[in-house]
Amino acid sequence: MTYIPTHPVRVNVMRSQFLAAAFMILLTSPSASQSPTPDRLQRILDNGTLRVGTTMDTPVFSMRTSSGQLEGFTSSISPCRAMGRTLDRARTATFSKPYMRYGKLMVVRNSDKDRFKSIAELDKTGIKIAYNKGGLNETFAKTMFKQATPTAFDSNALATAALLEGNVDAQVADSTAALYMARQDVRIMVMDPANVFNPVYVAILLHREDQTLLNYLNIWIDQIQMDGTLAKIRGKWLGDVR
Questions:
Q1: pLDDT tens figures, 30-85
Q2: How far apart are CA 130 and CA 172, in angstroms?
Q3: Whole-number Å distance between alpha carbons of 140 and 152
Q4: Rounded distance between C-alpha atoms, residue 80 and residue 16, angstroms
Q5: Fewer CB within 10 Å of terminal CB in the chain, N or C?
């Protein structure tokens, strides 16, 4: 005995009618009849202009020359803003693949090299710890020090100036920046440089929706890693730091 389905034609007809109706809706909708808005990468390519934000006061990564021009590791690899990747930041933005990593180190005056050799020796009542507002340095200062007084400044440069002037006792700095500053100024010393705190990967910060720009930058980072360009830039600005 052969079983014959009772409603095969009806089901197919109803499905065809549904698809046809859906197709007509798509054809007549404003989004289908208009050209899609170009994404950020396409706008950059069309306009020939890449707008970026950077602090210009972070040693190694983003600095000013005496004439006010941008220089440093970031300007060599990309003018896009480089930041440490964290889960909190990933909630509101997105990151490219990382191209290096850093952490936190404490910077003190060279004259205090025998006075301060550890976090414990810094974390005492009456000691002032400088940091720049609004980033991981602030988080580190407020989390790490319980007895010392974290002291906020509007920029890394102002924090360093306060340290050299004797208005604070130490400064929280990115490990790369700390080592660079010590090489440039004999008045500065990095405390325990081999013990880097809170390491994070560094990447380029982007808007969450910029998927095509993200893809483009990730491929570009791969290419400069493979052809040796990134290693040369690291060597120029960071020496042996990885």
A1: 554 455 567 888 888 888 888 877 777 777 777 888 887 878 887 676 656 678 88
A2: 6
A3: 12
A4: 50
A5: N
Cα separation, 160 vs 155, whole angstroms: 9
Please, what is the Cα angle at 217 between 212 and 218, to 5 degrees?
Answer: 95
Task: Read off the amino acid at residue 176.
Answer: T
Question: Residue 208 has which token pair?
Answer: 């969450």
CB distance 137 to 172 below 8 Å: yes
In the 8-state DSSP scheme, what is residue 111? G
Rounded Cα–Cα distance for residues 170 and 145 (Å): 12
**Domain definitions of the chain by residue range:** 63-238
CATH class of the domain whose range is 63-238:
alpha beta
Q: Helix 211-226 vs helix 229-238: angle between axes, to the nearest 10 degrees?
A: 80
Q: What is the pTM of this model?
A: 0.69
